[in-house]
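Researcher: Structure for this, please.
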Amino acid sequence: MADNLEQQILALEDMERRELAERWGTLTARPVPRVSLAVLRMAVAWEMQAARYGGLSRRSSQTLDQLVSGHSQTQRLQPGMRLAREYGGRMHVATVDETGAIVWNDRQWKSLSAVARAITGAHWSGPAFFGLKQRQLAA
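Model: Predicted structure, token format:
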């Protein structure tokens, strides 16, 4: 099966713009981007591989969206991080253990947002609550 995909990708080199545009439309159901023929070939090849093996992770997509928009940037969690926030007259400290799990009040949490919600009783972006999400300065 992988050989077939490899052959299909190699066949893109012999395709004209019209054929590549048709392939793009079939794969994405989006308008063909206005790019060079070489870039269109790479984009079609990427879409073919993404359809077979899966696309970008949610985290990668979010990072790219943040970089493109230029509005904010979120620092990634790293094992060993201690995140502190004063709220309601109390200091709350969450840590990221060696496996990447978030620990607060001697309990593992599925996300920083879940911790922020437990602390405040309201929906919060965990990275924003703990100061990991920073607004970018206008250029």
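Researcher: Any notable elements?
Model: The mean pLDDT is 87. Residues 75-130 form one domain.
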